[in-house]
Write a structure and sequence with these properties.
Bound molecules: 4-oxopentyl trihydrogen diphosphate, FE3-S4 cluster
Oligomer: single chain
Shape: flat
Structural class: alpha/beta
Number of strands: 12
Length: 336
C-alpha cells in the first residue's frame, strides 16, 4: 500500500465521467449472472469488453473466451461481447447447437438497425471506423454489399459509391469525435449529397470521456489513461488528450506500467479511464501517485451520467435446458 503524501504544488486532476459506461456494466454483469445461474463454463465469443483485468477476473470465475464460434462445444452457452456480432455469427451458433446470450450494447444494436434500414432502401453506406475492429466487423456484416469502411480522412480519396445521390455515413461508437468530423467533412466534399445518421453513432460515453480528457489536457503536463491496448475508446482518449495540447499522455493497464520518468517536471497529472475499465484500477493509480507526492486529488466534472441498460433478455430463460433440447433435437433423444 502506498503512503499518501501531498508535496506542495503537486496534484492530480481526476476526470468525471470516466470508466464503465452503461453497456460495459451490463455486459460484465451478464457474464457474472450467467456463471451464477448456469455454472462454469460459460463461453464468451471475443473479450466481453476490451479490458485485460476484466477478462482475467472473469476467466478465474469460469468464463472461457474464444475468438470463433466453432470453438464452443455443442450444447453449450455462448455469450456475444458488447461490441456486437454479424448475423452470420448467430447462424454459426445455431448450427453449432449453442444457446446464446447477446451482450451487444444497445447503442451498437442501434447502429446495426440503421445499417439494415439504409441497406433496405438501397443506400451506399460509408461506415467510418477502424479496420479489423470487432464492432465494425459486426456492423458491416449486417449489409456487406452496401457497406464500405472508411478508416479516417486519408481513406476518403479511394472511396467509391454507386449513386452519389444515395449515400449515408454511419460510424463505430468509440471513435474520436473530432477526427470523425474531419472524415465527414472530407466525405461531404467528395459527395455533397451525403446524408448523416439519424442520431449520433458515437455514443454518449465516448463523447463524455473525450470532453473530460480535453479539460484535463488544459492543465496537466501528463495525462494517464487507464485502459487496455486493444480498447478503441481508451486509445482515442490518449489521442484526444495529445490533440488538446497535453505535453504527454499514456495508456496503461495497471499502475505498475507507469514509468517514474514520466513524472519528471510534472506538477499536475490528469487521470482518467476508458469505458471498459473498472474503477479499482484507477484507485490503484491514485495510490501509486499518492506515494510519490501527488496526494492532492481534485475531481474535474464535465458531465453527469445516469443511463443504465437492462440485462440481456436471454438471462430470464433456462438456457441449459434450451441447449440440451437443441442437442436432443439433433440426436433424436429427448431432453431431460
Ligand atoms: O464497442 C463497444 C460497444 C465499446 C465497448 C466498451 O469498450 P471496449 O474497450 O470494450 O471496446 P472498444 O475497443 O470498442 O472501445
Ligand atoms: Fe455502449 Fe458506448 Fe459503452 S456503445 S458499450 S455505451 S462505450
Amino acid at each position: 500500500m502506498g503512503r499518501m503524501t501531498a508535496s506542495p504544488g503537486r496534484r492530480v486532476l481526476l476526470a468525471a465521467p470516466r470508466g464503465y459506461c452503461a453497456g460495459v456494466d451490463r455486459a460484465v454483469i451478464a457474464v457474472e449472472k450467467a456463471l451464477e445461474q448456469y455454472g462454469a463454463p460459460v463461453y464468451v465469443r471475443h473479450e466481453i469488453v476490451h479490458n485485460k483485468y476484466v477478462v482475467q477476473t472473469l476467466e478465474r470465475k469460469g468464463a472461457v473466451f474464444v475468438e470463433r464460434t466453432e470453438e464452443v462445444p455443442e450444447g453449450n452457452i455462448v455469450m456475444f461481447s458488447a461490441h456486437g456480432v454479424a448475423p452470420v455469427v448467430h447462424e454459426e451458433a445455431a448450427r453449432g447447437r449453442l444457446a446464446t446470450i447477446d451482450a451487444t450494447c444497445p447503442l451498437v444494436t442501434k447502429v446495426h438497425k440503421e445499417a439494415v434500414r439504409f441497406a433496405k432502401e438501397d443506400y451506399d453506406i460509408l461506415l467510418i471506423g477502424h479496420e479489423g475492429h470487432e464492432e465494425v466487423i459486426g456492423t458491416s456484416g449486417e449489409a456487406p454489399d452496401h457497406i464500405t469502411l472508411v478508416d479516417g480522412p486519408e481513406d476518403v480519396a479511394q472511396v467509391e459509391v454507386r449513386d452519389e445521390s444515395k449515400v449515408v455515413w454511419l460510424s463505430q461508437t468509440t471513435l474520436s469525435v473530432d477526427e470523425t468530423m474531419e472524415t465527414v467533412e472530407a466525405l461531404k466534399e467528395k459527395f455533397p449529397q451525403l446524408i448523416s445518421p439519424p442520431s449520433d453513432d458515437i455514443c454518449y460515453a465516448t463523447q463524455n470521456r473525450q470532453i473530460a480528457v480535453k479539460k484535463l489536457a488544459e492543465d496537466a503536463q501528463l495525462v494517464i489513461v487507464v485502459g487496455s491496448k486493444n480498447s478503441s475508446n481508451s486509445i482515442r482518449m490518449v489521442e484526444v488528450a495529445l490533440d488538446a495540447g497535453a505535453p504527454a499522455a499514456h495508456l496503461v493497464d495497471f499502475a505498475s506500467e507507469i514509468d517514474e520518468a514520466w513524472l519528471e517536471g510534472v506538477t499536475t497529472v490528469g487521470l482518467t479511464s476508458g469505458a471498459s475499465v473498472p474503477d479499482v484500477l484507477v484507485e490503484e493509480v491514485l495510490e501509486w501517485l499518492g506515494a510519490r507526492g501527488y496526494g492532492d486529488v481534485e475531481t474535474v466534472k464535465t458531465a453527469e451520467e445516469s443511463i443504465t441498460f437492462s440485462l440481456p433478455k436471454e438471462l430470464r430463460r433456462d438456457l441449459r435446458e434450451e441447449a440440451a433440447a437443441l442437442i436432443a433435437d439433433r440426436t433424436g433423444t429427448s431432453a431431460e
